[in-house]
Specification:
BaiN-like_dom_sf; TIGR03862 family flavoprotein; FAD/NAD-bd_sf; seven-stranded antiparallel β-sheet; flavoprotein; elongated
Length: 412
């Protein structure tokens, strides 16, 4: 392979996991790397994600892991082949951070914290010669030069290659605001509209229900929803009732399909199994069991443990006649329909869908319309559920873009 020019300089724009990984690959490849970020420090969303326990990746088999990327599984597969879940763990161990696999299969640093990992990583990058430029917001191009807004006014710089790792449009206060979209569209780069992913939804609860149950968790529940393939999918887990809807891990896992249904039909329906530990026959037997002078609510609590927010949901979603019909009530306990009206705003979402379309990139993650400019991370049109899948693909795409830039530099 031809050698990279000794004076080659590459700019990485974006200091999240994808950008930092690209910078590492580039610096190890022998080029000078300047990393720019609009915020005062790098990795802000990464640190926030680790606030409740830094979920790095997932230990499930590779085939199942790859399927978590849904309609983009085929496009993400080359990234994961290059830097999959085990490679992520090995890389973290190389930073001096041990990991463990939780009961759910999720992988965490042993101390559950993001900050020590980020500190070790930044130390490695600085030792490798990466130069960091904070509070530098990318404004696009002036000819071949990159434009940046800085505390000292606008600045320009020219590089041999550029890697864009600017994130999506969730959590704008941490730097991911989607402001890059028109800058790329001006260069004829196809961009799919950004949309919320891993998000909550509005259901327009009644004031009575909302005032009594907002913030209440449903810790033993299953949800059935139609997937992108049009088939029903059932998952058990947890979610939370909000003042105007639903949110939480179980809802996030289904959010891509729900979002698409709302876009197509104006609303989406999920069906709640409020008694997932009991069969439908068992529920029917208990609901129709003679209850004497007890109210139906007391009967449900005694026989099936239905109380609190679950009892409230039945009253919210069923008419008085339906609640008073034992057969209909038993059916509703296993398949209670809840209509979702809207996804919550993108800035509240954990991540975003949409972004630079895959057909706008060549096999090395370079923008076909802008030679020498590569893309990585969440700004590309893919999405994944929480559980380590988002972070793994960000790492892997950053690595792919870094290697793609190194290859391009050897040929130009």
């Amino acid at each position: 392979m031809p050698e990279i020019p000794t004076q080659a300089r590459v700019a990485v724009i974006g200091g999240g996991p994808a950008g930092l990984m690209a910078a590492e690959v580039l610096s190890q490849g022998g080029v000078a790397v300047d990393l720019y970020d609009a915020m005062p420090s790098v990795g802000r969303k990464f640190l926030l994600a680790g606030k409740g326990g830094m979920n790095i990746t997932h230990a499930e088999p590779a085939l199942a892991f790859g399927q978590r990327y849904g309609a983009r599984a085929g496009q993400v597969a080359p990234w994961l082949a290059l830097f999959g879940a085990q490679a992520v763990r090995d890389w973290i161990h190389g930073l001096g951070v041990d990991t463990f696999v939780g009961t759910s299969g999720r992988v965490f640093p042993t101390d559950m914290k993001a900050a020590p990992l980020l500190r070790a990583w930044l130390h490695r990058l600085r030792e490798g010669g990466v130069r960091f430029h904070m509070r530098h917001r990318w404004l696009g191009w002036n000819g071949a030069a990159l434009r940046f807004a800085t505390p000292d006014g606008e600045r320009e710089a020219t590089f041999d290659a550029v890697i864009l790792a600017l994130g999506g449009a969730s959590w704008a206060r941490l730097g991911s605001d989607g402001a890059w979209v028109p800058l790329l569209q001006e260069r004829a780069v196809p961009v799919a509209p950004l949309a919320p992913s891993n998000c909550g939804f509005d259901t327009d609860w009644s004031a009575h229900f909302s005032s009594r149950h907002a913030g209440a968790p449903l810790t033993t529940v299953a949800v059935t929803a139609l997937g992108a393939d049009g088939a029903p999918h059932k998952r058990q887990g947890q979610f939370v009732i909000t003042a105007g809807g639903v949110e939480g891990s179980l809802i996030y896992a289904l959010s891509a399909g729900l979002r698409e249904q709302i876009a197509a039909n104006g609303s989406a329906t999920i069906w709640l199994d409020l008694a997932p530990d009991f069969s439908a026959d068992k529920v029917f037997d208990e609901v129709t069991r003679p209850r004497g002078s007890r109210s139906m609510s007391s009967h449900l609590q005694s026989r099936l443990g239905i109380k609190g927010v679950k009892s409230g949901l039945l009253r919210e979603c069923l008419s008085a006649a339906e609640f008073g019909d034992p057969a209909r009530l038993a059916q509703a306990l296993k398949m209670l329909p809840v209509v979702l009206q809207r996804a919550r705003p993108i800035d509240e979402a954990i991540s975003s869908a949409g972004g630079v379309r895959f057909d706008a990139l060549d096999a090395n993650a370079m923008l076909r319309a802008v030679p020498g400019v590569f893309a990585a991370g969440e700004m590309i049109d893919w999405e994944a559920p929480t559980g380590g899948y988002l972070l793994t693909a960000c790492f892997a795409s950053g690595r792919a873009a870094g290697l793609g830039a190194l290859e391009w530099l050897t040929r130009n």
